[in-house]
Design goal:
With about 550 residues, this protein is mainly β. It is about 15% helix and about 35% strand. The chain has an eight-stranded antiparallel beta sheet with strand order 2-3-8-32-31-33-29-30, covered by helices on one side. Strands 12, 13, 14, 15, 16, 26, 27 and 28 form an eight-stranded antiparallel beta sheet that branches. The chain has a five-stranded mixed beta sheet with strand order 1-5-6-4-7. Helix 1 (about 10-20) runs parallel beside helix 7 (about 480-490). It is globular. The protein starts with a strand and ends with a strand.
């Protein structure tokens, strides 16, 4: 049989009815009054508990629909990434055209199973028209995960591939929950601590958010930007987008994608779209850089230079390639720079060339740096670099209007996407930020449309920085679709907001404890970086 499955479109309509946040009082911006989250039906139970962590910092836990009845489990017939996939968050190939879905459904029914095809309809957002993403094939409805697993075993014996899924993760706006959301709010008028990004001992390795928080003596923190997870996509732990730490640009932007900009240790935060330009200068001439502190030839999330393949535009969770690159390395990258074909100009702490080594890769001198070249760029670097002579690297960030961004030592910038809220209005941008992928609607279905754990951040009308995690992939916490995430961000009063890395990465740490429920089976996931609230060390 066929049925239609609606996405979270009614969430957007509900927000339109609710209207914008009240205007600030004339005496200055004030936080908007709390309002119920636009999740599920109006009138669902919702509780909020708030406590102060340090002057100017509060933690609020919101639980909505705690008394919701259990929903059904089902089996989704799909081609999953598999247990050996390097990215456990990679969505399965689940959607087909209607004819293929009907054909598969008929075959499953002929084998004695209760199969159905469902049209997956997703809501329109700022830069994507939405509509039908495709058809999925499902089998049965079960009261428990164990019952669904038993039927899945039978299906596999019959030659089918699939997974047991909880229907509460589908994004149906009629669901009654539960949802569990944690909110950290930093009030710049009272906050005397610090708000800083940390990548740990080096960029190229991953650490847990709780480990990064403990090392910094942080009061609280959340996981932050997207990062390389697969060794075939670069160095695991390396930011997959812009990264500014202590005012230093250590990872280039995915061109034009948004980042969370934290200035003055959290006193002024914004969401900005960023680009960059970099050059290597030596012997009276210069050449353009391709990247900073990443494995040459591998551009995670794409958005690089015109000669990258398959595209120079952002393409989320895809690794683009470029065999001809100049990449600059700082001491922050790791103990050794990446090894491979090409050459490397090794610089001392004053920026003078110590040696040209080939093949490239190896340790850097104390306080030193380097520039690596591959392919046709080898000749260019050879012409620039001369032993004993200076070789200078220049890096410039620009905002969406082309204005130069000059980070101070108290500035952190973390990569994210898509945008969620702009100027107090819903503004979800998956097409611009590479989540709409031609020929692959299953990616949008799994990443944007379905409910997952989410981490997001932004700033409200009172200038407060707000950091949020939403648990998911559980029967106790459904998670959020990206349109739902945007609706929640606006309901929390955020004027501007951006999505950060979510899924199994979603983590919030308070006073040394992980207070949310990370969704990976192994528990808390090591990540690329974190945003940490530090105490007043005055």
């Amino acid at each position: 049989m066929n049925s239609k499955v609606l996405g979270a479109a009614t969430v957007l309509a509900l927000l339109a009815v609710m209207g914008a946040s009240p205007a600030p009082a004339s005496s200055g911006p004030r936080p908007a009054p709390a309002r119920a989250l636009p999740l599920g039906a109006v009138g669902l139970s919702e509780t909020r508990s708030t406590r102060t962590l340090q002057p100017g910092v509060t933690l609020t836990r919101i639980v909505r629909g705690a008394d919701a009845p259990a929903l059904a489990w089902t089996i989704e017939i799909a081609i999953p990434g598999g247990a050996t996939s390097p990215d456990p968050d990679a969505p399965p190939t689940a959607l087909k055209d209607r004819a293929s879905a009907d054909e598969l459904t008929a075959g499953i029914e002929a084998d004695g199973f209760d199969a159905r095809a469902e049209d997956v309809v997703t809501p329109a957002v700022a830069d994507y028209a939405g509509g039908s993403l495709g058809w999925r094939v499902r089998v049965g409805r079960f009261a428990s995960q164990s019952a669904a697993a038993a039927e899945l075993t039978r299906l596999r014996k019959a030659g089918y591939t699939g997974s047991a899924v909880y229907t509460g993760w589908d994004g149906d706006p009629a669901d009654r929950g539960p949802w569990r959301i944690d909110v950290l709010t930093i009030d710049p008028g009272r906050f005397r601590g610090g708000l800083e990004a940390s990548y740990g001992p080096d960029l190229e390795n991953r650490e847990k958010t709780s480990e990064l928080a403990a090392a910094a003596g942080a009061t609280a923190g959340i996981n932050a930007g997207f990062f390389v997870l697969d060794p075939n996509a670069g160095a695991p732990g390396d930011p997959a987008g812009v990264g500014v730490y202590g005012g230093r640009l250590l990872s280039e932007p995915v061109s034009g994608r948004p980042g969370l900009v934290v200035r003055d240790s959290g006193r002024h935060s914004t969401v900005a779209r960023l680009t960059w330009e970099g050059r290597v200068l030596g012997r009276g001439t210069s050449q353009p850089l391709d990247g900073i502190d990443r494995v040459p030839g591998l551009i995670r999330n794409c958005g690089g230079t015109a000669d990258d393949t398959p595209t120079s535009l952002p393409l989320h969770d895809v690794t683009c390639a470029d065999h001809d690159e100049l990449v600059a390395f700082t001491p922050d990258y790791g103990r050794q720079t990446p090894r491979g074909d090409g050459i490397e100009a090794v610089l001392d702490s004053r920026g003078r060339v110590l040696e040209l080594r080939s093949p490239r890769g190896g340790p850097l001198p104390d306080g030193g740096s380097s520039v690596q070249a591959t392919g046709s760029r080898v000749a260019e670097l050879t012409a620039l670099a001369q032993a004993g002579q200076p070789l200078r690297v220049e890096k410039t960030l620009r905002d969406g209007d082309g204005r130069k961004v000059s980070p101070s030592p108290t500035t952190s910038i973390l990569n994210g996407g898509p945008e969620l809220v702009r100027n107090g209005r819903l503004h979800v941008t998956p097409a611009t930020d590479g989540m709409v992928q031609s020929g692959n609607p299953s990616f949008y279905y799994g990443w944007m449309h379905k409910r997952n754990p989410r981490t997001f951040a932004g700033v409200d009308a009172a200038g407060r920085t707000v950091l949020v995690t939403a648990d998911g992939r559980s029967t106790d916490a459904l998670g959020l679709s990206i349109p739902e995430t945007a609706a929640v961000a606006r309901a929390l009063g955020l004027r501007d907001a951006v999505n950060l890395d979510g899924g199994g990465s979603t983590t919030m740490v308070v006073d040394g404890d992980v207070i949310n429920d990370p969704s990976d089976a192994a528990g808390e996931r090591p990540v690329g970086d974190a945003l940490l609230i530090l105490p007043d060390r005055g």
